[in-house]
Amino acid sequence: MKRIIACVFVCVLGLMDRDVLRSSAASAATAERRVGFIDPSMRNRMLHCNAAAFEFARSTTSAVRLEPVADGWRDLEGRLHAPEEFGLIWFNQGDEPAASRLHPYAQKDLLQYVENGGCLLLSGAAGRWLNDLRIESPPPRI
Predict the structure, then answer these.
(1) Of 61, 118, 58, 128, nearest to 92 (Cα)?
(2) pTM greater than the 0.90 cutoff
Protein backbone atom coordinates (compact mmCIF):
# COMPACT_ATOMS: atom_id res chain seq x y z
CA MET A 1 0.00 0.00 0.00
CA LYS A 2 2.70 2.52 0.97
CA ARG A 3 4.70 1.72 -2.17
CA ILE A 4 1.76 2.73 -4.36
CA ILE A 5 1.23 6.02 -2.54
CA ALA A 6 4.96 6.74 -2.63
CA CYS A 7 4.95 6.11 -6.36
CA VAL A 8 2.17 8.66 -6.85
CA PHE A 9 4.05 11.19 -4.66
CA VAL A 10 7.33 10.74 -6.56
CA CYS A 11 5.53 11.18 -9.88
CA VAL A 12 3.98 14.42 -8.69
CA LEU A 13 7.33 15.80 -7.60
CA GLY A 14 9.02 14.78 -10.84
CA LEU A 15 6.27 16.22 -13.00
CA MET A 16 6.27 19.54 -11.22
CA ASP A 17 9.99 20.05 -11.77
CA ARG A 18 10.47 20.37 -15.53
CA ASP A 19 14.26 20.08 -15.40
CA VAL A 20 14.11 16.89 -13.35
CA LEU A 21 11.54 15.38 -15.69
CA ARG A 22 13.42 16.36 -18.83
CA SER A 23 16.79 15.09 -17.58
CA SER A 24 15.33 11.80 -16.39
CA ALA A 25 13.35 11.48 -19.62
CA ALA A 26 16.52 11.88 -21.68
CA SER A 27 18.04 8.79 -20.12
CA ALA A 28 14.86 6.72 -19.72
CA ALA A 29 13.12 4.31 -22.07
CA THR A 30 10.45 5.64 -24.43
CA ALA A 31 7.55 4.48 -22.23
CA GLU A 32 8.98 6.27 -19.22
CA ARG A 33 9.05 9.58 -21.11
CA ARG A 34 5.42 9.48 -22.15
CA VAL A 35 2.39 10.66 -20.19
CA GLY A 36 -1.00 9.12 -20.82
CA PHE A 37 -3.55 11.82 -19.98
CA ILE A 38 -7.00 10.38 -19.23
CA ASP A 39 -9.74 12.45 -20.83
CA PRO A 40 -13.21 10.86 -20.51
CA SER A 41 -14.71 13.82 -22.43
CA MET A 42 -12.37 13.38 -25.41
CA ARG A 43 -15.22 13.35 -27.95
CA ASN A 44 -16.25 16.79 -26.72
CA ARG A 45 -14.28 19.95 -26.07
CA MET A 46 -11.72 19.42 -23.31
CA LEU A 47 -12.74 20.99 -20.01
CA HIS A 48 -10.80 24.16 -19.15
CA CYS A 49 -8.93 22.76 -16.14
CA ASN A 50 -8.03 19.59 -18.04
CA ALA A 51 -6.82 21.63 -21.01
CA ALA A 52 -4.41 23.54 -18.78
CA ALA A 53 -3.07 20.35 -17.18
CA PHE A 54 -2.69 18.64 -20.57
CA GLU A 55 -0.83 21.62 -22.01
CA PHE A 56 1.53 21.54 -19.04
CA ALA A 57 2.17 17.83 -19.62
CA ARG A 58 2.79 18.43 -23.34
CA SER A 59 5.20 21.27 -22.61
CA THR A 60 7.17 19.00 -20.28
CA THR A 61 7.27 15.68 -22.13
CA SER A 62 5.40 13.61 -24.71
CA ALA A 63 1.73 13.43 -23.69
CA VAL A 64 -1.16 11.55 -25.28
CA ARG A 65 -4.85 12.13 -24.56
CA LEU A 66 -6.55 8.83 -23.73
CA GLU A 67 -10.23 8.02 -23.64
CA PRO A 68 -11.28 4.93 -21.67
CA VAL A 69 -13.25 2.57 -23.93
CA ALA A 70 -14.47 -1.00 -23.43
CA ASP A 71 -11.47 -2.54 -25.19
CA GLY A 72 -8.68 -0.30 -23.86
CA TRP A 73 -7.56 3.31 -24.04
CA ARG A 74 -8.08 5.15 -27.33
CA ASP A 75 -6.12 8.21 -28.48
CA LEU A 76 -7.39 11.02 -30.74
CA GLU A 77 -6.37 9.08 -33.86
CA GLY A 78 -8.38 6.04 -32.74
CA ARG A 79 -5.37 3.87 -31.84
CA LEU A 80 -5.66 1.61 -28.81
CA HIS A 81 -3.09 1.85 -26.01
CA ALA A 82 -2.31 0.03 -22.79
CA PRO A 83 -1.35 1.97 -19.63
CA GLU A 84 1.98 0.12 -19.61
CA GLU A 85 3.03 2.11 -22.70
CA PHE A 86 3.37 5.19 -20.49
CA GLY A 87 5.70 6.09 -17.65
CA LEU A 88 2.86 8.03 -16.01
CA ILE A 89 -0.91 7.98 -16.32
CA TRP A 90 -2.41 11.32 -15.26
CA PHE A 91 -6.08 11.68 -14.40
CA ASN A 92 -7.06 15.28 -13.65
CA GLN A 93 -10.58 16.51 -12.99
CA GLY A 94 -11.18 20.01 -11.77
CA ASP A 95 -14.14 21.49 -13.62
CA GLU A 96 -16.73 18.78 -13.10
CA PRO A 97 -16.38 15.98 -10.52
CA ALA A 98 -19.05 13.89 -12.30
CA ALA A 99 -16.70 13.70 -15.30
CA SER A 100 -14.27 11.63 -13.24
CA ARG A 101 -16.47 8.54 -13.53
CA LEU A 102 -14.82 5.65 -15.34
CA HIS A 103 -16.15 2.40 -16.78
CA PRO A 104 -15.47 -0.61 -14.50
CA TYR A 105 -13.09 -1.98 -17.15
CA ALA A 106 -11.01 1.19 -16.95
CA GLN A 107 -11.01 1.06 -13.15
CA LYS A 108 -9.74 -2.52 -13.17
CA ASP A 109 -7.13 -1.70 -15.80
CA LEU A 110 -5.80 1.28 -13.80
CA LEU A 111 -5.64 -0.70 -10.56
CA GLN A 112 -3.71 -3.49 -12.27
CA TYR A 113 -1.34 -0.91 -13.78
CA VAL A 114 -0.62 0.59 -10.34
CA GLU A 115 -0.28 -2.80 -8.64
CA ASN A 116 2.28 -3.77 -11.29
CA GLY A 117 4.40 -0.70 -10.47
CA GLY A 118 2.90 1.93 -12.80
CA CYS A 119 2.69 5.56 -11.72
CA LEU A 120 -0.75 7.12 -11.49
CA LEU A 121 -1.11 10.85 -10.87
CA LEU A 122 -4.56 11.82 -9.60
CA SER A 123 -5.32 15.53 -9.34
CA GLY A 124 -8.42 17.57 -8.61
CA ALA A 125 -11.65 15.62 -8.24
CA ALA A 126 -9.91 12.52 -9.64
CA GLY A 127 -8.18 12.21 -6.26
CA ARG A 128 -11.25 10.31 -5.12
CA TRP A 129 -9.95 7.36 -7.15
CA LEU A 130 -7.61 6.55 -4.27
CA ASN A 131 -10.77 5.31 -2.54
CA ASP A 132 -12.68 4.12 -5.60
CA LEU A 133 -9.78 1.89 -6.67
CA ARG A 134 -9.28 0.82 -3.03
CA ILE A 135 -5.70 2.08 -2.99
CA GLU A 136 -6.59 3.98 0.20
CA SER A 137 -9.48 3.23 2.54
CA PRO A 138 -9.91 6.44 4.60
CA PRO A 139 -11.88 9.14 2.77
CA PRO A 140 -9.86 12.17 1.68
CA ARG A 141 -9.94 15.23 3.94
CA ILE A 142 -10.33 18.52 2.13
Answers:
(1) 128
(2) no
